[in-house]
Amino acid sequence: MLFGEVGPLGGAAWTAPAVRSGWIQGLRTLAQHPSALRFLAACGAVDTIFSLQGDSSLFVASAAGQLLVHILDLAMRGPARGRCSPQACDWPACAQKIVCHIEDSLCSIATPQVTQALNVLTTVFGHCRGLWTQGLWVRLSPLVARLLEKDPVPASHSLVDLLLSVARSSVPSSDRGLWETLAQTLSHLSPTQAGPLALGILKLQDCPQALRTQAFGILLQPLACVLEAAAQAPGPPGLLGGAAGDPMTADTLLCSKSACVGLLCCALTHLGLLQPLPQRPSPWPQAPLLGAAVTVLRLCSGSVAPTSDVGGRLCAILVGCGRVQRAALDFLGALSQGAGPQESVTQVFSVLLEYLMSPESSSMVLKKAFQATLRWLLSSPKTPGCCDLDPRTQLFLRELLPVLQKRLCSPCWEVRDSGLEFLTQMTRHCGGQAGFRQALLASEVPELTKQLLQDPESYVRASAVTATGQLSSWALLAAPASPERPGAQQKSLLVELLHVLCADSEGFPRRAVMQVFTEWLRDGHADVAEDPERFVARVLQAASRDPDWEVRAQGLELALVFLGQLLGPRGSHCPCAVALPETAPPGTLAQALPEAAPPGTLAQALQVLCRVQLFEFAFRALFDCDRPVAQKSCDLLLFLRAKAAPCGSPQEAGDSPNVASVEATLQRWQAGEQGQPLGYLEPGAVMAVLRSIDLEGLRDTLAESSDHVEKSPQSLLQDMLAAVGVLGENEADCY
Amino acid sequence: MKLYCLSGHPTLPCNVLKFKSTTVMLDCGLDMTSTLNFLPLPLVQSPRLSNLPGWSLKDGNAFLDKELKECSGHVFVDSVPEFCLPETELIDLSTVDVILISNYHCMMALPYITEHTGFTGTVYATEPTVQIGRLLMEELVNFIERVPKAQSASLWKNKDIQRLLPSPLKDAVEVSTWRRCYTMQEVNSALSKIQLVGYSQKIELFGAVQVTPLSSGYALGSSNWIIQSHYEKVSYVSGSSLLTTHPQPMDQASLKNSDVLILTGLTQIPTANPDGMVGEFCSNLALTVRNGGNVLVPCYPSGVIYDLLECLYQYIDSAGLSSIPFYFISPVANSSLEFSQIFAEWLCHNKQTKVYLPEPPFPHAELIQTNKLKHYPSIHGDFSNDFRQPCVVFTGHPSLRFGDVVHFMELWGKSSLNTVIFTEPDFSYLEALAPYQPLAMKCIYCPIDTRLNFIQVSKLLKEVQPLHVVCPEQYTQPPPAQSHRMDLMIDCQPPAMSYRRAEVLALPFKRRYEKIEIMPELADSLVPMEIKPGVSLATVSAVLHTKDNKHVLQPPPRPAQPTGGKKRKRASDDIPDCKVLKPLLSGSIPVDQFVQTLEKHGFSDIKVEDTAKGHIVLLQEAETLIQIEEDSTHIICDNDEMLRVRLRDLVLKFLQKF
């Protein structure tokens, strides 16, 4: 027996799942060499692993299954072993035992046992690459096929996973019978169960066309039924080329609300996942699918009046169903990637508008509707000859903006948030297009967005910050003075955002401000370009005091952008070689450098960095208690050092009197005493300090995972010492 | 059991239930949609309304031009608005014993019934229902009485003339029964007949039935009613809500096991979810005010307005509306706002707990304290001094035919900056707006109706499982405008019975049992005999005494002592003769054993025949028949009394006696 005479099962500790999990991990570490197998077999560990497959803890059960696969793989990975015969009389005893166990489980009448066997096999075919897996499949496939004869098919989910795992392995190249099994499975499973298998089959790179057609048919069936049920009159051949919908699918759709919703959601999700794939079926029925998505959405909103009895029942089931609405909107969004007939696209925009306007749309449905609308707007064709929106889209925009305006006033914060997200994305992509600019400026949306900076909900404030930042970048925020205060000077957005950064009690708006500022600096926003040095100094000062680590990390990102603009991007060796005024976009910081010409550029840049107190910020961040901040700071300082090193000379550091005091301060910071300020730094002192700190070493330390200390041998030793407690004399033994 | 349906309006019901010798009126709703046919009553002289052209027939005949005026293609009656009363001819309303009121909207016809039909019974309602109902009636009377109208149009009601009128006047029903509004005196007299009740209180009606109000979750003090006898239970569900608003939640459990469930007062807008509508309301309000426009909300002085104010309380700061004044104008505004704060026991749990903090249950108290919400009895007086625009005004009446709202429609209707937001679902907003056309102000329709929708009804019926459901006919088919929406109707098994105005429904339900009590001394004298395990019987001789619908078995009076013939008995003193009782027999006769017994006793030549009801034992020699059936045995012999007695005794051997 393993670990003691009575074995692990006898111990009281065995009742703790963590102990059982640890035991499995221990075995896994042990089983690295074929000779370990003999030991495991001899001590009966394999039987214990079999029993642990049904453990009450899912973690333990899953680990036991994986360990079995590992042992099987180890056993079969003999040096000269090629493809094994299915009879497997020459299989190693250990492998033989495991495979027999799997065979027994597959024949079991208890579904959990079948599930366990199927899960083990799924892992085998998913992870083991040896040729022996082909032999294993030949041996086990009849047992798997026999499962299909049962009604209902046991453990159908696991069976689907296994078949897909086998289909993705090297087995199909040797066993064409697999395709038959897959086809059989598709026809045996219920429409809901068959969906994931159909999707998996269609994702396969290489698979017979007949099987693909069958699988695609299964995914299309529910939507075909919906189209058929909602049709006012027999129309053109729909999704299935005019063939009638499968009665079984229709029965599932109508038998209960939950079944109908489940099946439709699966079909919509699966087709949505399939749409962007290169191996999606061709021809792709874009127009009927658009029609089906629109019909489903109209059934859900009750705005379609089916004449047939089935249509009426479907309408009663689906009306107001948020789950189907969300799935259909996602699917509709995915379909935006393909073209569609003019009529269908008009219908799409009209149904999207209907959803965006409807007071009945829940906040989640609205979010999805906004997302789908964005995708359709971005994919709509541009007017030939110019990069502006086409007239139909412009018309839609004019109808959409009043709706957006109303949504931005919604009492539900989720709705305001989704509206702002939509506006941000729309502006990001279309901010330069005249049609969009014109429509937006004519609406009250920019003004409303600015008002939402004062929203009581922090998520909305954050989204409003991002949206106003984006609007401002495209000069879309220049609203006239408000009617209540004619002539009053509008406060600059930069000042407002700085106020948010300094005063907002929640982290999300402050993070958003930092992102906007970083973007503004990168893109040379006009407000920033006026005095970038002052801007960076103010932002870094606010960010350095921020209690939120993401704000501090974003501050370093902004500092990095600033450095890039001063010293040239990463990768170029020496800033002296970078002709800053020519390469930088207009209005960026480079222009602000008074004399940006070599060889004084670096010195001047360092002067600027010292003036904005970037070093104090970066050095503080280096010892930040949050690892990502420290890592980022380390990267920044390394970048700076690399940039400066070839140009600087050791004597440049001089014997600046304050190097020692800086180093002393940094040491105190490292020790956790961060109260003391660094004071004004000379560029020379900075370079000297940079060279003296072991940044590489620090980077390596920071790269370790947070539990590296706990996992180290030293920690194990400490644990052991702690366990023996007061028996001090044992300390020597341990060493 | 019969149901007399006096109202065709599903949410303003008025039905009479005859059940076990009691006549119970269920609600007393007043259909006010008739007022939409009348011209608005302006508080301030309106040149526009007073200069509307008179209507004339196609042939130019203008004899109706004093009564009917034309406005933007619609014809209106220029007279004091009139209301469509419940049917008064279907049943003699003086025979109504009690009226049960379910909520304050469903009692507006009460003065017409209690004051003009010979009604002498009692009205039962909860305290908030009565108090807020009084406010609604007071407001209505005030709105109409403060704008006296010289003329009263009646010519147009003539059936021959009505036929010539354009729609909707042509199609208006029962116009001859339309009545002008009652007076405050009638209101006070009607309300004095009300007896206050609390939830779950059991009220005996003549000993025949017991009625109990249950919380219905729709409004302050709103109730459903249980009307039950010992063996029958009728539930009356009217205006209930499962949403979490301000009132106490609905009591569903007590509705279980009803024989009949009468279901009225479902949502009038089944496709509109109240949450979505509140969102629309807030968004549109904010948009209008931000643009410098005013918002007008025509509403009742109680009910949804409390929830709207609460919602706005949370919303105004986030929407930057803190500086916008909110005005609530109604003759009863002050009382309504204050009443709502004192009915703590009728509020939902959350609001009840606030009272113990102590805090006012509704946040409109804070809005008033901070001067964000101001209330006035009318537009005259203080209001005109404080009035500041842009603003939001809540005022009545939602029909837009009377009340202060008429003034604001005239004042703000011409500017497209202003918005009127309809939140009350009782009136079609298009019809309400008709006499104000052409109208520049924006109109938003956000009907907020928190009453049960069809999904909730379906769940409720599954939960409480009544044997029969009775409902207005409108609920048994999809709405006419959405005939494909099969989900917008009641779907239950067996299908619901439907009723319409002026219909009498025999409820599909027969009474089978009646409870009778036995006096203790009589019960003591009984000697039960067990005839089979668990079942004992005893004979009882008693006098059945019935009074106030209660039945009691009392011991029979002792036989009169012989009085020596001196005192003559009066006829009224006659008591039933108590003869010596024969024992009662029970049990069955096993034919085979009976035949064997007969043979043992010397009878021979016995034949047995099976009949549909039992057996015939034929004693051929004796020329005698013994007919044995489930509940009788006959011995038929030819004048041989000796033989009959012998045979009888043999039969009796197989039966138990007590």
Automatic annotation (TrEMBL), chain A:
Its BP terms in the Gene Ontology are: cell population proliferation; DNA damage response
Question: Does Repeat count among this protein's keywords?
Answer: yes
Q: Which Gene3D superfamilies match?
A: Leucine-rich Repeat Variant (1.25.10.10)
Q: Which domain of life is it from?
A: Eukaryota
GO CC annotations on file = cytoplasm; nucleus
Pfam families membership:
HEAT
Intracellular or extracellular location(s): Cytoplasm
Keyword DNA-binding part of the UniProt annotation = no
Q: Which UniProt keywords apply?
A: Cytoplasm, Repeat
| Similarity comment text for this entry | Belongs to the BRAT1 family.
Record's protein name: BRCA1-associated ATM activator 1 isoform X4
From TrEMBL, chain B:
Pfam families, per database record? Beta-Casp, IntS9_C, Lactamase_B_6
Q: Does the keyword Nucleotidyltransferase apply?
A: no
Q: Where in the cell is it found?
A: Cytoplasm; Nucleus
Example of a GO biological process term: negative regulation of transforming growth factor beta receptor signaling pathway
Q: Where is this region: Disordered?
A: 548-573
Cytoplasm found in the keyword field? yes
InterPro entries referenced in this protein's UniProt entry, alphabetically: Beta_Casp (IPR022712), Integrator_9su (IPR027074), IntS9-like_C (IPR048660), Metallo-B-lactamas (IPR001279), RibonucZ/Hydroxyglut_hydro (IPR036866)
**Keyword annotations from UniProtKB, A to Z:** Cytoplasm, Nucleus
User: What is the annotated role of this protein in its UniProt record?
Assistant: Component of the integrator complex, a multiprotein complex that terminates RNA polymerase II (Pol II) transcription in the promoter-proximal region of genes.
What does the record note on quaternary structure?
Component of the Integrator complex, composed of core subunits INTS1, INTS2, INTS3, INTS4, INTS5, INTS6, INTS7, INTS8, INTS9/RC74, INTS10, INTS11/CPSF3L, INTS12, INTS13, INTS14 and INTS15. The core complex associates with protein phosphatase 2A subunits PPP2CA and PPP2R1A, to form the Integrator-PP2A (INTAC) complex. INTS9 is part of the RNA endonuclease subcomplex, composed of INTS4, INTS9, INTS11 and inositol hexakisphosphate (InsP6). Interacts with WDR73; interaction is required for the assembly of the RNA endonuclease subcomplex in the cytoplasm.
Q: Tell me the protein's name.
A: Integrator complex subunit 9
Q: Which organism is it from?
A: Balaenoptera musculus (Blue whale)
